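Pilot study result, target chain (108 residues):
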Amino acid sequence: MSARSIENTGPLQHVTVEARQTRLTLSPGSVIIHKNGIEFRSSTPFAAWTEMTMTLQSPVDDGRINCSGVVISCTGNKHAGYQVSMVFTSVSKYAQARLNTIAEARLG
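Predicted structure:
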């Protein structure tokens, strides 16, 4: 993952990640979005290489960004929770442009 990350307190309303029968709705403050992926805390562990879909929703224009990815790391335990790292594997040109706009708005 890239070292360039975004603080998600303004341009995002919520983030939803799904893997098979698990669906998590995350607050913007609980995720870190990188240029090529996302990190988040979860009470549920995910195996490495689990395929996931992700939707980011912006409160500004109610726009949604949809991406697919795989879990590359999941560390922690059931008592403290798990830190999940996911790398994007499928991002449309439109979605990548939206992610870049959010990154520039937060870092600029």
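One observation from the pilot: The domain at 5-107 is CATH 2.40.10.220 (Thrombin, subunit H). A full batch analysis is planned for the follow-on phase.
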